[in-house]
Fold:
Amino acid sequence: MNERIYFCIDLKSFYASVECVERKLDPFKTDLVVADKSRRGAICLAITPKMKERGIKNRCRLYEIPSNLNYIIAPPSMKKYISYSANIYSIYLRYFSKEDIHVYSIDEVFIDVTSYLFLYQKTPVALAEMLMKEIYQETKICATTGIGTNLYLAKVALDILAKHSKNNLAYLDEETYLKKLGNYQPLSDFWQIGKNTEAHLNKLNIFTMNDLLKKDEHLLYKEFGINAKILIDHALGIEPLTIKDIRDYQPKTESLSTTQTLLKDYSYEDALKVLIEMLDGLSLELIKKNCLTSNLSIKIIYTKNTLPPTSITKKIEPTNSYKKIANLLLKEYQDKVNKIVPIRRLCLSFNNLTSNTTMQLSFSNETQTLNTLEECLNNLKTKYGKKIILRAISYTDKIALRRTSLIGGHNE
Structure:
């Protein structure tokens, strides 16, 4: 077989399915949502296929679910979901080299299976069915697979066709793509076309992939710039990128970032405490990677978008010193952040990372002492967990310890 064959495998309603498995329930027969009901207006991170059958939308808020429906609310447990995901990844590794697997998210992977079809003497469909069966037998999690002759077609086969097929499988190549999906709507169901892009296309009277192919390319480049190339290629079912290309990609500059969605509206003073905690963790990560940063970025998002976000970017001398960065952060925060409007989300990043080996030796005992102290803190947290030692400011916030137990903003 000359053409490449890719799988795009998704774990169906993953978080909700895990919670059902833990309760020995069938997610296709159980009304269950994953949400932290202690949060006001909590968003459901996942709902079971049974609830989707009832017309309830994924990522809805708890108050949007009909009040007469009797359903289970499962608090999110990221540690549990990571464990299930790791177990399923180990199943992939039984059959495929890690070099041929690209982890797209906690519940979705791409696999280049081209060379394995001959090895296992199976058709793409038979190999996918074997894999999905093994995942279910060992974890009770239902998997769905899109099969395509490139990454894009595999993803589209998954998202638009496989998730709605009886056997949870679908195949697309360039020949069958436009036949099956040339007139499909809405365009936002296609990979890499968001709602804003769809609205832009609709204004140009483009509602399907066939409509897109009929449009003058000069107009598309005028409207979308270089992204027009991607739109045109995808309208034809073309995607030159491979898993090897993804693995070989090296960004021009490296960065470290962290984001915290707060559990409630925070005041100017309390949000600063959280930002300092975030700085502490990111600084230790900088030392762990033996890197320096020369660019600091802060973004403050206010409650209910009552004000435009405050975005701050500052160039600094290359450093990994918590003290130097903290002093700069404090000054910028005091100068530019609104002191009245409550804050709901914080983003912090270190950009333009370079190796610490490029730093000139310092004759300052203070700098050497601080670096040694921060390395010691990093070693303690690596060995015993991030709660083993906190800066004093964290103890002034009664829910600071809870934040240290979160994974991606959710409970362990």
The chain has four domains: 6-13+80-178, 15-77, 185-246, 256-411. The first helix runs from residue 14 to 22. The longest strand covers residues 291-302.
